[in-house]
Automatic annotation (TrEMBL):
The lineage of its organism: Bacteria, Pseudomonadati, Pseudomonadota, Alphaproteobacteria, Caulobacterales. Gene3D superfamilies: Spore Coat Polysaccharide Biosynthesis Protein SpsA, Chain A. CDD domains: Glyco_tranf_GTA_type. Residues 22-183 form the Glycosyltransferase 2-like domain. It comes from Asticcacaulis benevestitus DSM 16100 = ATCC BAA-896. This is Glycosyltransferase 2-like domain-containing protein. Pfam families: Glycos_transf_2 (PF00535). The keyword Transmembrane helix applies. The chain crosses the membrane at residues 266-286.
Length: 329
């Protein structure tokens, strides 16, 4: 006869493993944002059925968040680990944090995001409802600048919208405010591509590969987080440059994976997009229309698809963060 006590122990172990979740917060020189993110995790409700832990992965070379993370850990009601990844790069930080995590589920929260009280429990509930490998939730931007003609555009730019109801998805979003079943991540290599360290898009590559591999992806409509947008980012000079970088992603990835015809198709589409929306955006801006920003955004993304080559690749992470900022910014 099978050993019933051993079987029961295995069931208990499995049940415990399925209830463990680690919130990973990568950070780079944002002490106030990190404090807000950590406090919001500490304020989570309806998680008595979860075994919660937190990993703060500090990506600054000087380990600037160490003291802050250790001070939080001293009073936190759950285990808090500090990981220092001195090699700057968003993929480096996420890979190091994932390597340090042994929970069944990983939730990603950025260091400029704040999670409402029921956030984590709702992500986990959506995961259970759809037996999902990956769950995404909404991101609601909070501007800290005075009202301007383009604040509506800025709010949309920094927010993440999705279906009105929780459901299974046939697409994917970015890593901030996501939940991943750890077992679905590749075991033979780091999940996030280090080639994307400076430019971002490492999460898109991962989720695209998981989707192609048959991963179940779901949307938790009731699990939003808030993203605080500083004045330096709520400017057209920033968002249009970032839109250009977003546009570079598809062409760059196609070229990187040896798909010349796909690359050419993206470039052709980008050319038409840049010309049509560029002209329309400039006309609307000349006549004082608020909608000009959205059209220029599309034009910038189109231009990025055309001008994707490495010499023109725009970086917002990694070594780009170490460059001195111009005065007045």
């Amino acid at each position: 006869m099978p050993d019933s006590s051993a079987s029961l122990e295995a069931q208990v172990t499995t049940a415990h493993a399925l209830s463990t979740v680690c919130v990973i917060i990568p950070t780079f020189r944002r002490p106030q944002g990190l404090a807000t993110a950590l406090a919001s995790v500490a304020g989570q409700t309806d998680i008595a059925h979860l075994s919660l832990s937190v990993i703060v992965c500090d990506n600054s070379p000087e380990a600037s968040a160490r003291a802050q993370a250790e001070a939080f850990a001293a009073t936190a009601p759950f285990p808090v680990s500090y990981v220092h990844e001195p090699a700057t790069g968003v993929a480096n930080a996420r890979n190091s944090a994932v390597a340090a995590c042994d929970s069944a589920f990983i939730a990603f929260l950025d260091d400029d995001e704040e999670a409402p009280a029921g956030w984590l429990g709702k992500l986990m509930a959506t995961q259970a409802r759809f037996a999902a490998d990956v769950v995404f939730g909404p991101v609601e931007a909070r501007l800290t600048t005075p009202d301007t003609a383009y604040n509506g555009y800025f709010t949309r730019f920094f927010s993440r919208f999705g279906p009105a109801q929780s459901e299974r998805l046939t697409s994917y979003y970015g890593c901030g405010n996501s939940l991943i079943r750890r077992a679905c991540l590749p075991q033979d290599h780091a999940p996030f591509s280090v080639e994307q360290n400076d430019m971002g898009g490492e999460d898109d590559q991962l989720f695209h590969s998981l989707m192609l591999g048959g991963a179940v992806i779901a949307w938790a409509a009731d699990a939003p987080v808030f993203e605080d947008v500083p004045p330096a980012r709520a400017r057209l000079s920033y968002t249009l440059l970032r839109a250009f970088a977003y546009g570079q992603g598809p062409s760059y990835t196609a070229a990187l994976t040896g798909k010349p015809f796909t690359t050419a198709a993206w470039m052709l589409q980008g050319t038409a997009q840049a010309v049509i929306f560029g002209l329309l955006g400039l006309i609307l801006m000349a006549t004082g229309r608020k909608t000009s920003a959205a059209r220029l955004d599309k034009a910038a993304r189109g231009l990025g698809k055309l001008v994707w080559m490495p010499p023109f690749k725009v970086g917002f992470y990694g070594t780009a963060l170490l460059k001195p900022k111009p005065r007045g910014r």
